[in-house]
From TrEMBL:
SUPFAM superfamilies: Periplasmic binding protein-like II, Winged helix' DNA-binding domain. One of its GO terms (molecular function) is DNA-binding transcription factor activity. Belongs to the LysR transcriptional regulatory family. Keywords: Activator, DNA-binding, Transcription, Transcription regulation. This is DNA-binding transcriptional LysR family regulator. InterPro entries: LysR_HTH_N, LysR_subst-bd, WH-like_DNA-bd_sf, WH_DNA-bd_sf. The keyword Cell cycle does not apply. PANTHER family: NITROGEN ASSIMILATION REGULATORY PROTEIN NAC (PTHR30293:SF0), TRANSCRIPTIONAL REGULATORY PROTEIN NAC-RELATED (PTHR30293).
Length: 302
């Protein structure tokens, strides 16, 4: 069986269109149609129903799609294993990252990584921990670097770094920068927090319930960029891992304060499937992420 035809079949299935699949695979549309017909003839079964609106998989096509995903994933894994066996840093990796890393050290990491390993194709996906864990389990990502997801998963996890959480306020807030603060001693504290599915929110909710954080008002904003924009234009505050605001420490737009009490950390893990050990390209990017995270406290003087 021609593995190229399997890849074409997967593209048609996922795109729902011969023309879009041809564009995705950089092949002429008539040639792709021929490959699909030859595949159907080879297996003596119809994989798609054609119509003016596009193509729709038959029951046989849906079943074959599941088989093809496994076959193509195994083929890619075999290729990567042989590259690793020869010590070649090459291939493709799909990396899921939490917003803290994407907003903080990611740009420098990518500059260094793409320069050091030009033969590696890298895909970065930004999302919260639960989403990233689900995609690693499904085989859509090779690894993720994020907080530990709330539901226990069967992923292999390793703690990379425990990041200190800072109080982040807009410059309009009358607060001295870098002075350690007790959150239960701040009157009129208005907090922007992520939604409950975020791991940091669950930690903060426990502290609020215990009375060690006493916000006067709370609003939810489920997006790091939107949170920072709002805080920067207002007298509201938020709490973030120090790596997320490493570029803001001298911008003058935000006031950053270490939190003396309660002691809050954001534990950052690397996770992958037990049956898919990290390839050499994946190991290298994890090493770079780890090195940048370890350097964060020194940049703040913490």
């Amino acid at each position: 069986m021609d593995f190229r035809r399997l890849r074409y079949f997967v593209a048609v299935y996922e795109e729902g269109s011969i023309s879009r699949a041809a564009e995705r695979e950089n092949v002429a549309q008539p040639a792709l149609s021929v490959h699909i017909r030859q595949l159907e003839a080879e297996m003596s079964v119809r994989l798609f129903e054609r119509s003016a609106q596009g193509v729709q998989a038959t029951p046989a096509g849906r079943h074959f799609y599941k088989l093809c995903n496994g076959l193509l994933r195994d083929l890619a894994s075999a290729r990567q294993e042989m590259l690793d066996f020869g010590g070649t840093i090459a291939g493709a990796i799909r990396v899921g990252l939490m917003p803290t890393i994407c907003r903080g050290p990611l740009a420098k990491i990518l500059v260094d990584y793409t320069s050091a390993y030009p033969k590696v194709e890298i895909e970065i996906v930004e999302a919260y921990s639960g989403t990233l864990a689900d995609r690693v389990v499904a085989g859509e990502l090779d690894l993720a670097v994020c907080n530990r997801p709330a539901p226990q998963t069967n992923l292999t996890m390793r703690l990379l770094f425990s990041d200190r959480v800072l109080l982040v306020s807009g410059a309009a807030r009358p607060r001295q920068p870098w002075v350690p603060c007790r959150l239960d001693a701040i009157d009129g504290l208005k907090l922007v927090l992520p939604s409950a599915h975020h791991s940091l929110r669950r930690i903060l909710d426990r502290q609020i319930k215990a009375g060690t954080i006493r916000p006067a008002r709370v609003i939810e904003v489920d997006g790091l960029g939107a949170t920072m924009e709002f805080v920067g234009e207002s007298d509201w505050s938020t709490m973030l891992p120090s790596a997320a605001v490493i570029k803001d420490r001298s911008s003058g737009r935000f006031i950053l304060n270490p939190i003396a009490s309660p002691h809050l950390t954001s534990d950052i893990y690397v996770m992958h499937r037990p049956d898919q050990p990290l390839s050499l390209p994946a190991q290298r990017i994890v090493q770079m992420i780890h090195a940048e995270l370890l350097a964060v406290p020194g940049k703040y003087g913490l």
